[in-house]
Every structure is written in structure tokens, then in C-alpha cells.
Specification:
about 400 residues, alpha/beta, six-stranded mixed sheet, four-stranded parallel sheet, 17 helices
Length: about 400
């Protein structure tokens, strides 16, 4: 099975039109992924290429359009390029010593502002020799760079090594999804409903990733449907360390799981794994402030065709409406596009973002925080709306403390 995007280091390649970004990508991947042309602006939409960059592992290269593009179409290309910053874990600025200037400095500033590590590739060294003044300036501020010539095939191996050395630490030591909550030699029960929304013949990604996470960390795993949970627990000599359910089965699973056994959902696990659980717990508590007519944004990472009782478009709106006691104005979006007017909303409810890398989800949380709009996710919203929020936070003491502190009576 191919590694999902969430586990891939996202490497964004940025620079002017015709700086050689696509040539660099093709040289790194050793295949023609991007169109290479002498005509500036050949790359339009970002081009993605997954590959294995050993010894780091799976990465996703994203080749972007030049930020010096012009005209109406150019502005759209630039906007799409700037959106790639939201999901970039490691930036690569491609330039050459002759053209280095304000565009490249603008890119550096954008990457620095977002705390994204980056390196610089001075390409076309076969025609542009090293500028010692530029090199000295970069050395003085400890910015890493490499010199390449795709035409002559020089510097590419040095670039690979620099990419490996510059990768963020979290990709070298990836945190667990739930294994730290269970422990080696202990049991987790995963409750997986099989309904018409379940994909035919397979499990959804968070379920698969959770099973693999437990196996990688020497924990036991039992997978059951929700109606089999009570019987399964009754057969254990030793209770499981954790029960994890699909959020849609929260009420039944909460009823069938003894209170001394911690219980949560896959979605809440991913609020921690992919985002910021404490921030999203605070966001869920904003549900209490919603009033009839308020605008709520429901955001989904995947672009899928909703069927039947879709969780994002049908179930969550229904549960929220029942909780608030009046009709809300609910908008839904899918994919990487995030509306510019998020300040219009009283609450943003996001999916678990299992198909994304963590940086893109953190970028959305940051945008929500800047706009002073609470943000939470599906599982937390469902637990809050159904009145089992404290129970669902049982495995997360810090998050539970945030909730309890906010609900202490004022003296």
C-alpha cells in the first residue's frame, strides 16, 4: 500500500518563472514529472510527485508556478502557489546567482514568517558563476544552500543530502496516533461500524493507520462492529486500555463501554495527531455560544461525493441544530481551498484531515486563530452535541483539564 499524503514530508519548490524548478524536480525524481520548457510560466497548477527519499522515507514534492507571473491568469497561478505554503513542511527556493533579488527575498520572508525550514538551490551554475557577495550574506545568517546544474547533472546528490539534513525533526521521530495511550502488551478495541458509508471491502484511512500504529508499537488490537462491543468486552479477563469508536456510533459505544475503561473516537485522536487538540477542545466549547441564524463552516479535506446520511452535510448539521434549538446557516467546503471570509463564521468544524499532512491542518488552525474564529473537528463536535464530551476526553488529561477549568463555577 502506498504511503498516504499525511505521512509524507511535503517539499514545496518555489521560485521565479523559468528558474529551473521543474528541471530540479525531474532531476530529483529521475523522471519527467513536470513540463520543462524555455518558455517562462509553463507550470500552471502545482504539480505533485510522491517518491521515497531514502533514508528519510516517503516525501511529496510540490512544483509551483513562478511568483513573478503576470496578468489575470498569472495572478491566479500566484494565488495557487502561495496556497502551497499552507502544506509545505520543507521549502526549496530555486534561483541562480544572476537573478537573485526581491522575489527570492519575498519567498524567504514568507517561509520565515511561517517557521517553515527551507534551503536555496542556485541552479544553472553552468552559465551563472557563484556570486561571493550573495553566498557570504547567506552564510552569515546560516541559510543553507547548494549549487546545481541540471544540464550537466552536477549538485543533485548534494541537494538530496541537504534535503535530508533539513527535514523537520517530527518527520524523523513521528508521534504515535494512539499507541502511547495503550502501551506495549496492552489491548485496544477499535469499533468500526459497517454501514452504507463504509467503503466496499476495506476500512477507512484513520482505522487502517490506527491498527498499524498499534502493531508497530507491540500493542494488541481487536476490531469489532458497534453491536458486538458489549459481548467482546464481557469475554476479557483483563479490561482493554482504550476503546476507540467511529464518532457516529458514540452514544451506543459510550453506553456499552464500562465507565472505568477510557473511550474516545478516531476523529478526536486525529485532532491530536494532525492538529492541536487543546485548541480544538476550546473550539468545541464555542458550540454553547451558538444562536439561531449563526453561520457555521463545515470543512472537509477530501473531495468525495456525499451519500445518504453523510456525516458532514447531514448528521452534524442535524445534531447541532437540535443542540442549539434553532436553525443555523451552515456552509460546507471540500478540498484545499479555504474561504477568505472565515471571520464571517461563529464556528469552523473540520474533518480529521487524515489525508493531509499536519502542517496544512495547523495552517488552518492558525488562520482561524488570527480571524478569532473558534475551530474544532467532527468527533469533538459530535461528542459535545450528544453530551458525552467529558467521557470522550477521558484519555487526554490536559484536554480534559481545559474543559473542566472552563466549566468551573465563578466565585
Amino acid at each position: 500500500m502506498r504511503a498516504p499524503k499525511t505521512f509524507r514530508l511535503h517539499i514545496g519548490i518555489f521560485g521565479r518563472r523559468n528558474a529551473g524548478k521543474s528541471s530540479i524536480l525531474n532531476a530529483l525524481t529521475q523522471q519527467d514529472v513536470s513540463i520543462v520548457s524555455e518558455v517562462a510560466g509553463t507550470t500552471t497548477d502545482p504539480v505533485e510527485k510522491p517518491m521515497e527519499l531514502l533514508p528519510l522515507g516517503p516525501v511529496l514534492f510540490i512544483d509551483t508556478a513562478g511568483i513573478d507571473d503576470v496578468g489575470d491568469l498569472g495572478e491566479k497561478r500566484v494565488a495557487k502557489t502561495l496556497a502551497v505554503f499552507d502544506r509545505t513542511d520543507l521549502g526549496v527556493i530555486v534561483s541562480n546567482f544572476q537573478d537573485w533579488g526581491k522575489y527570492e527575498e519575498r519567498l524567504m520572508g514568507e517561509l520565515k514568517d511561517r517557521n517553515i525550514p527551507f534551503i536555496i538551490v542556485f541552479n544553472k551554475t553552468d552559465i551563472h558563476s557563484e556570486d561571493l557577495s550573495i553566498a557570504s550574506t547567506l552564510d552569515s545568517v546560516k541559510i543553507k544552500y547548494v549549487q546545481t546544474s541540471v544540464l550537466k547533472g552536477t549538485g543533485i546528490s548534494d541537494l538530496r543530502q541537504l534535503l535530508l539534513r533539513s527535514a523537520p525533526a517530527e518527520f524523523i521521530e513521528r508521534p504515535t496516533i494512539l499507541a502511547d495511550l495503550v502501551g506495549a502488551g496492552e489491548l485496544a478495541v477499535l469499533v468500526v461500524p459497517i454501514d452504507k458509508e463504509a467503503p466496499k471491502g476495506r476500512l477507512i484511512l484513520p482505522q487502517v493507520q490506527s491498527i498499524r500504529d498499534l502493531l508497530d508499537n507491540d500493542a494488541f488490537t481487536l476490531v469489532v462492529k458497534e453491536r458486538e462491543l458489549r459481548e467482546a468486552i464481557s469475554r476479557f479477563n483483563t479490561p482493554p486500555k482504550l476503546v476507540v469508536t467511529d464518532s457516529q456510533a458514540f452514544l451506543k459505544v459510550a453506553a456499552d463501554t464500562p465507565h472505568e475503561i477510557p473511550m474516545t473516537s478516531f476523529s478526536i485522536l486525529f485532532a491530536r495527531f494532525q492538529g492541536d487538540l487543546l485548541e480544538m477542545v476550546k473550539g468545541a466549547m464555542a458550540i454553547d455560544k451558538l444562536k439561531t441564524g449563526d453561520k457555521v463552516l463545515i470543512a472537509e479535506a477530501c473531495s468525495h461525493h456525499p451519500i445518504g446520511e453523510d456525516i458532514g452535510t447531514v448528521k452534524i448539521p442535524r445534531w447541532l441544530t437540535q443542540y442549539v434549538g434553532g436553525k443555523l446557516e451552515i456552509d460546507s467546503i471540500r478540498g484545499h481551498d479555504f474561504p477568505a471570509n472565515i471571520s464571517d463564521y461563529k464556528l469552523i468544524i473540520h474533518c480529521g484531515a487524515c489525508m493531509w499532512n499536519r502542517r496544512e491542518m495547523l495552517s488552518r488552525i492558525m488562520k482561524a486563530r488570527q480571524a478569532k474564529v473558534p475551530i474544532t473537528n467532527y468527533g469533538l463536535t459530535i461528542a459535545y452535541s450528544l453530551g458525552i464530551f467529558e467521557r470522550a476526553l477521558q484519555p487526554f488529561p490536559a484536554a480534559l483539564e481545559v474543559y473542566k477549568a472552563a466549566n468551573q463555577p465563578m466565585h
